Each structure stands twice: as structure tokens, then as C-alpha cells.
TrEMBL record:
Keywords: Signal. The keyword DNA-binding does not apply. This is Vancomycin resistance protein. The keyword RNA-binding does not apply. Gene3D superfamilies: 3.40.50.12090. Residues 1-25 form the signal peptide.
């Protein structure tokens, strides 16, 4: 309760005064603005973020400085703007050297500021140092000159800061050894061994290790580096925590530790994933947290900068997966257990909505408040399906639901429309209900055009207006015709007699060996196009006649002439299903499709 009162005083202060760079922000504000989130009024929620990892580190560090000042002040509603004595400078482009720096930074009450590879891209760091570091203070640069170049030192000197200490080793393991050697408050009775090949495990324990002054020593998976062996032999800790599974730190390393320190107690803290390991560590060291610091488990930068904030009270840095719709399973159950024990820690997010989405933050608050359980339904994504026009579609009996603990389960659904009409193409949005879920379940069903059994196209001259009109009338007459299995289609019966009264016009026709004007000229192009389509569909041709002269719209021998009541084109549907004729006249192209 004492920790919560301190945080409340700090928040009250930020809310009541105007500052140059406010650092607590709701997800609806621009970076640097402040307001408390109100998605769940039982749980206080804040966000510390900037547009970039460098600005986020600056904002976190500004919050850290003020938090220290207010906790040390006799008047918690006032900020004396007392400057920090030390600042740790680390690269924002790689985690290797700085993984162990949280413990040193906490001991020195130093924020961790990130820089880019170039000075021009590191203005946030220079702004912070210029505004918040005591002129007699010290900058601790983590990593060699290939990581943070000498030009940064010259820039800091130009700003008036000449006290600089560079901590760098031959590699990341040597650097962690040298950082451990700087600790003055540690009695080295406990040390942490973490992988130097990935950042998640070391950052998961960083706030606890820093709070207790336990050095974090890095190791490759297979074997302890010689300097780390020498450190362990010299300090002879009684307790060693290994973070991560055997893929991160092998059992061989564990055996090496026991050979070096026969009396040592070694405890491995591990889970099935980085998120599980993160929760194993949180449950081990934070059974009663005052604040949970949420950040992405897919990047190191925000967690590294925020580790010194979490270290002040020894509270956990909690990893979430921003690409997942729900919280990691172990985290959801951790939050539910806190709620059952009537613990309601504050939630502070390191990073913007891309790192910690609003929905994830709300889920965490809801679990802590007890308004939902880990096994309640969190969401049921909208599903999509496609059915061919005219085909029967059966709605699914179950839908995939995701619980607050991330588990996916299939649950029965009751649809509002049990029978679906698929005769019309287009999109249909169907709704249903799942017991225990307040929102409607949605399914987007696309009724699509079926793939044709066959299709055939011919070209015509649109400048021949009368002939074009005759083609259009005939194609409209057969468009949409449904033919049952065994049924015989007749062109003449379907199109009807070509007369002026029916709208047909005079155009060139073939009579004997001559081209002469006639009502309905051009109709044979429609029947010939249909013949070629039926031929490709392997339908049974019942009646078909050739022209007495060649025509130019189909290859020789592939025509089918018609003359009402005398010459017809007929075919039989010899399939086991209905077939449908679809016609399209576009520009100078006639297309007939058979479905």
C-alpha cells in the first residue's frame, strides 16, 4: 500500500502542473501528453511512449528522474527538478552489451538512455542529458567504440559534460563481467546467469536483480566464459539463478557452476517460451506487485530503458505479444491469481500501441479487476467462407473462440438464418450467437460466380448497328436459361421468332450462295458461339446445321446456322446436374459461358 501511495502522489503531481515534456500518456494522445486511462476504473493504467525507441527511452527516463525526486522530496506535490548524477548510455540497435547494465544503473540511480548509430539520429539522448544531468555528473557509456563511437564523447563534451566512463569488454560476456565489477552495493551472495544470445530472459529478471544488487552475468549456451568462471570463483556466491531453458543455458554450464562452487544452490527459472519464462520469474519474485510494467516481448529497447523504473520497487517487467489478440496464457492466469488475492497493481506500459495494444492493456485490467476470468471468452474473430452460386451451403455448427488465456476452443453457434439462399451472387454477412459471449458472431459469406464448364467468345463489328442490336436481343433471350439433366435446349424455342415486332432489325443474312438483307441478321453468330461453348463442355449435340457459305466469326466448320421453324440448334444436357447459360456482350465481343 505504501508503494501505491507513492505512485499516486507522483501521478497527482504530473496531473496538476504543467511541465515541458509530460511523460504519462493515454493511448488517445500524442507522445508526451498525459492522462490516465479509464478503460477500467478499478485499475490505474498509464502509458510511457514516444514516436521512436529513443524518444520512448527519453520519456521513461524523464519519468524516472521525477519519480526519484518526488520520492525523496518532503513535498511530494512539488518537483525540485533536481538533476541526476549519472546517466547510462547504451545503443538502441543491439541488446548485447547493455543487458547487464540495469543493476549498475539502479545502484547509481541512473536512467538508461538509448542512442542510434549516428549523432544526428540521437537528439533525444542529447536533449535528455543536457536538461537532466548534473554538470558534474557522469556518463557511463556501455560498449566499445564500434558500437558507440568517439564522436558521441565529443558531442557530450561540447554540451558541457566531460566526466565519462566507458565500460567495454572484448565481447558481450566480458562486458557483463566488467559491469558486475563496478557494483558497490552488492555482496555477491546471489548472481544471475543469463543467455547473451537473446535478450528476453535477462530483461525478465533485470528489475529484480537490480533491486537486490544481483549482478547479471552473460554466458553462451554451451560453456561459461573464462572471465565469468574467475568471477564466480572470486565472489563465491551461495545462490545462482539461471534464466531460460537448456537451449539458452545448457546443463553443461550448470555443471560447471557446481564444479566451481560445490556448496552453491542453483535454481533454473524457465518456461516453454520467453513469455512463460517471464511469468515464472514474475511469480518467483513478485507474488505481491504494486505495479506491472507491460512491454513487448519481441523487442528489447523499451524493456531495457524501463528496467530501472521497475527496479525501484522490485516490480516485474511483463512481456506481451502484440501480434496476438490475447495475453500470453501464463500471464492471464498470473493476473487472475492476483485478482483472487485482492491485489490490484497499477499497469504502466512501456511503448506505444504497436508495442502494447490498447486491447491487450484492457484485457490485463479486466483480469486484475475480476470482471473477467482467464477462461472466459475474449473474442470470436469474424470468419469468411465462399460458396458457388446455386450450390447448397451449410453453416458451420461451431466457431473458433479465443479465451483470455489465449487458448483456442471450438464452441457451438446458433445462426439467425439457418437456411442460406445462394441464388444471388454477392456478399452476405450472417450473425449468430454463442452462449457466454455478448457480441454477435459474424460470418462473411461470398456467393461467387461458379467456374464455367466451358466458354467461347466471338468478335463482331459494333459499327454495324442493326446487326449488333440483333446479337444483343438474342443473347438476352438465352441468358440465364437453366437446363435440367436430360432436357433438350432449343435455340429457336428459347429466342423466339425474329420479327420487327420483337425488336429485330434488318441486317445481312446468308441465303443460298448469297448475302442479302434480312430481319434478324447476325443471329447465327449467337447460335454458332453457343455451339462452340456446348462442344467444349462435351454436351450432346442434337441438331446443328452449317451455313451454305463460310463465316468469319468462327473457324471453318465450327458454325451453327438457324432459321426459325426450319433450321434449329439443339443440344441435350447429358450431365447429372442443372446447367445455366450466361451471356455477355461487351464492346465488340460476345461471350457465352455454360455453368
Amino acid at each position: 500500500m505504501k508503494k501505491r501511495k507513492k505512485l499516486a502522489a507522483i501521478v497527482f503531481f504530473f496531473y496538476c502542473i504543467s511541465v515541458n515534456s509530460p511523460v504519462l500518456a493515454s493511448t488517445d494522445t500524442m507522445p508526451g501528453d498525459f492522462s490516465e486511462l479509464v478503460t477500467n476504473r478499478q485499475i490505474s493504467q498509464y502509458r510511457l511512449y514516444g514516436e521512436t525507441r529513443y524518444e520512448t527511452a527519453k520519456i521513461i527516463s524523464e519519468y524516472y528522474r521525477r519519480k526519484i525526486n518526488l520520492e525523496n522530496s518532503r513535498h511530494p506535490s512539488e518537483d525540485s527538478h533536481e538533476k541526476v548524477k549519472n546517466v547510462v548510455i547504451a545503443t538502441g540497435n543491439g541488446y548485447a552489451d547493455a543487458l547487464s547494465a540495469s543493476v549498475m544503473a539502479h545502484e547509481m540511480k541512473a536512467p538508461i538512455i538509448l542512442v542510434d548509430t549516428k549523432i544526428e539520429a540521437s537528439q533525444d539522448a542529447f536533449d535528455y542529458v543536457g536538461q537532466n544531468l548534473d554538470p558534474q555528473g557522469t556518463l557511463y557509456i556501455i560498449g566499445g567504440e564500434s558500437i558507440i563511437g568517439r564522436e558521441f564523447e565529443r558531442k557530450f563534451i561540447d554540451l558541457g559534460f566531460s566526466n565519462m566512463v566507458r565500460i567495454s569488454g572484448g565481447d558481450r560476456y566480458d562486458t557483463s563481467y566488467k559491469i558486475a565489477g563496478t557494483l558497490k552495493e552488492s555482496d555477491y551472495s546471489t548472481v544471475v546467469i543469463s543467455s547473451g544470445e537473446q535478450y528476453a530472459d535477462a530483461l525478465s529478471i533485470s528489475s529484480f536483480a537490480a533491486n537486490q544488487s544481483w549482478p547479471i552475468l552473460l554466458s553462451p549456451p554451451a560453456e561459461l566464459p573464462q572471465k565469468i568462471k574467475e568471477f564466480l570463483q572470486e565472489k563465491r556466491p551461495g545462490k545462482v539463478y539461471i534464466t531460460g531453458g537448456t537451449g539458452a543455458i545448457s546443463d553443461r554450464v550448470l555443471s560447471e557452476i557446481r564444479q566451481l562452487l560445490p556448496q552453491v544452490s542453483v535454481e533454473r527459472l524457465t518456461g516453454q517460451s520467453r513469455f512463460d519464462t517471464n511469468m515464472v520469474i514474475a511469480k518467483t519474485f513478485a507474488p505481491n506487485p504494486s505495479t506491472l510494467y507491460l512491454t513487448t516481448g519481441h523487442n528489447f529497447a523499451d524493456a531495457l530503458a524501463g528496467s530501472v523504473v521497475a527496479a525501484q520497487t522490485g516490480d516485474p517487467i511483463v512481456f506481451i505479444d502484440p501480434s496476438a489478440p490475447t495475453l500470453p496464457k501464463a500471464m492471464a492466469h498470473y493476473l487472475e491469481a492476483l485478482s483472487r488475492n485482492e491485489m490490484k497493481p497499477d499497469l504502466i506500459s512501456f511503448g506505444g500501441k504497436g508495442a502494447v495494444p490498447d486491447a491487450i492493456l484492457k484485457s490485463a485490467a479486466d483480469l486484475l479487476s475480476g470482471s473477467v476470468r482467464a477462461t472466459d471468452i475474449h473474442s470470436i474473430p469474424e470468419t469468411e467462407a465462399t460458396v458457388v452460386q446455386g450450390k447448397e451451403y451449410s453453416l458451420p455448427a461451431t466457431v473458433r473462440a479465443y479465451l483470455y488465456n489465449g487458448d483456442g476452443v471450438n464452441l457451438p453457434v446458433r445462426w439467425n438464418e439457418p437456411v442460406i439462399d445462394t441464388r444471388t451472387m454477392g456478399l452476405k454477412v450472417l450473425e449468430g450467437r454463442v452462449e457466454g459471449y455478448e457480441k454477435p458472431v459474424k460470418l462473411s459469406l461470398t456467393v461467387s460466380e461458379p467456374l464455367p464448364l466451358a466458354e467461347f467468345s466471338t468478335r463482331f463489328n459494333v459499327n454495324e448497328v442493326n446487326r449488333t442490336e440483333n446479337i444483343r436481343l438474342a443473347t438476352e433471350a438465352i441468358n440465364g436459361t437453366r437446363i435440367a439433366p436430360g432436357e433438350i435446349f432449343s435455340f429457336n424455342e428459347t429466342v423466339g421468332e425474329r420479327t420487327i415486332a420483337a425488336g429485330y432489325k434488318e441486317a445481312v443474312v446468308i441465303e443460298g450462295n448469297s448475302f442479302i438483307p434480312g430481319i434478324g441478321g447476325g443471329i447465327c453468330q449467337v447460335s454458332s458461339t453457343l455451339f462452340n461453348a456446348t462442344n467444349l463442355a462435351h454436351l450432346e449435340i442434337v441438331e446443328r446445321h452449317h451455313h451454305s457459305l463460310p463465316v468469319g466469326y468462327v473457324p471453318p466448320g465450327q458454325d451453327a446456322t438457324v432459321f426459325y421453324s426450319v433450321l434449329d440448334f439443339k443440344f441435350k444436357n447429358n450431365t447429372k446436374e442443372d446447367i445455366i447459360l450466361r451471356t455477355l456482350v461487351e464492346g465488340g465481343t460476345l461471350t457465352i459461358k455454360i455453368y
